Amino acid sequence: MIPPLRAPALHAPTEATAEEAGCAVAQWQLAAAQDMTYLDVKYPESSYGRGWVKAAFYVGLDRFAAAMGDEYLLARVRQYSFDNGLELGDRPWHGDDQAVAAIYANVALRDGNPGMMEKTQEQFDHIIAQNHTNSLEFIEPTDGSTEGTCQLRWCWADAIFMAPPAWALTTQVTGDDRYLDYAASETRAIIEYLQDPESGLLFRDSRYFEARTEHGLPVFWSRGNGWVFAGLARFIEAMPEDHPERPLMVETFQTLAARLVTIQREDGYWPTSLLDPTLILEPETSGTAFFGFGLAWGLNNGFIEGDEYVQSRDRAWDAMRAATENSGMVGWVQQIGKDPQSTTAGTSQLYASGGMLLFASEMLDHD
Questions:
Q1: Distance between the two ends of the chain, CA-based, in angstroms?
Q2: 49, 64, 131, 337: which sits with the fewest CB atoms below 10 Å from its CB?
Q3: Minimal CA–CA distance to 136: which of 95, 172, 98, 171?
């Protein structure tokens, strides 16, 4: 039996504690999980149980539930895992459809049940055996499909959130280092390929190397870099301290942190187009949630320090609470995409709720 949820809706979100805000966001999103009417467009990706959209929410829910020791929320995470049959998405070779494995792994670690990862191991073993070495250049498909030829590997920035933590956690469950080593090698490849040496930010994929906004500025997508920043935090904490690739992950995380605090808006949000703040003036919460989580995690774990990081984290937390309705719905969320787009106050998405839960989990001791 799943124990009852103890959290009511919020009365004053801007004054809510991390516990109150997180519980309200979790409650609202769980209730809305089967009803996509709050979306402007009912993307199939949003309702797909094993896909990256729901996985991003459950990654946040899992972390918040574990930090809280909330048996109701932990039970919902376990139920989600078994409802999925412990399987990856329909494209198990694709990094986005590997994101769910991180949730299965955390449940397996808590339950002491490594057998939960057998299906994931089978797919990951196959990927390792294939040993794809194709270019990371993103070439648009000509057959009408949505996949580029490079996506047999991780050739887009979002993949750093979706895949490497899942592979590293699979090593934690199984004791097999091959999964972590594969993830570390491929993550190095994507960082070296997509990171801009001048700004320290990452392009979403190779199609954006020469792209410019209407103001003639480079296109650096807020949520895309949020996926990277939050993904690196999750990956680093799942790696042994002596892993040879860990220093690169830490260095990249710290480089991003130092850059991010210089471009945060005064209202606490980050520009949707990071280096062109006047392109889109509305708030955007999915990037901000992941940046806030990364800063809070970095401060809590000693990877960054200094007043500029503390102040940036706190401004982001205030901004995220201001964007959360009394019901627990997180608004001002850019919808599914790959580059900067506009937002509205009443638009939400599961990954923004997941980002808010990640952030709240790191703010529990800072109320």
A1: 32
A2: 131
A3: 95
User: Looking at the domain assignment, is residue 23 inside a domain?
Assistant: yes
Enter the tokens of residue 94. Answer: 């694709």
Question: Residue 327 — pLDDT band, cuts 50, 70, 90?
Answer: very high
Q: Compute the average pLDDT of residues 9-38.
A: 88
Whether residue 143 is contained in a domain is answered as no
- Asked if residue 283 is part of any domain, the answer here is yes
- Please state, as a whole number, how many other Cβ atoms lie within 10 Å of the Cβ of residue 200: 17
The CB density around residue 113, as the number of other CB atoms within 10 Å, is 12
- How large is the greatest C-alpha to C-alpha distance in the chain, in angstroms? 57
Tokens representing 279 are 């392109």
Count of Cβ atoms closer than 10 Å to residue 7 Cβ: 20
State how many domains the chain has. Answer: 1
- For residue 17, the enclosing domain spans 13-136+149-363
Tell whether pTM > 0.85. Answer: yes
How far is Cα 190 from Cα 79, in angstroms, rounded to an integer?
33
Residue 142 lies in a domain: no
What is the domain-level CATH number for residue 81?
A: 1.50.10.10
Residues marked active site are found at: 158
Amino acid in the structure at residue 192 = E
